[in-house]
């Protein structure tokens, strides 16, 4: 499981340090693009960045810490939309649970797609270790997790649902979604680039939550 602390050993306090971090990240991305992830080592990153290996280790423990920081940087623009996306999901839940789940699935898959398309094989190596939710919670401490906001959304639609423990159901939905995405990245990564993958995930979650026709009807 991913660590919840920052991938940086220390935060930059001067513009020169900020430039060093940028050079390290850009060097890692360049190596991944031009040489492949097998060539991605801390020594090679330092060489391409034009810094000493000692300077690199002042900020990062290893290449996986560099990768986590790159992921954070790639998704930083999403953090500006985090609260809007949360409000949108919660507002959708008031009218349509199906629309809420469809929106939620699409957002989760899009995040992994973005990282996979940028990092390719290296993301396949590190995806289990990277925890975007921990990073976003650090930036926005009051941001509710899926397991925190989804139970109330389910409560609004309780008459149409087969589940009764909404807290447990919310955790099952979050775990099933994240687990399926990660398992697919391990076995069939190109699937996450398709709309069919999103559609099937949506259907899977809806069928878990909703009553089937005739379910719950008592026979005389």
Automatic annotation (TrEMBL):
User: Which residue spans does the record list as DNA-binding?
Assistant: 41-60
On whether Thylakoid is a keyword of this UniProt record, the answer is: no
UniProt KW Cell division keyword = no
- What Gene Ontology molecular-function terms does this entry list? DNA-binding transcription factor activity; transcription cis-regulatory region binding
HTH tetR-type domain ranges (all copies): 18-78
Q: Which UniProt keywords apply?
A: DNA-binding, Transcription, Transcription regulation
Q: What is this protein called?
A: Transcriptional regulator
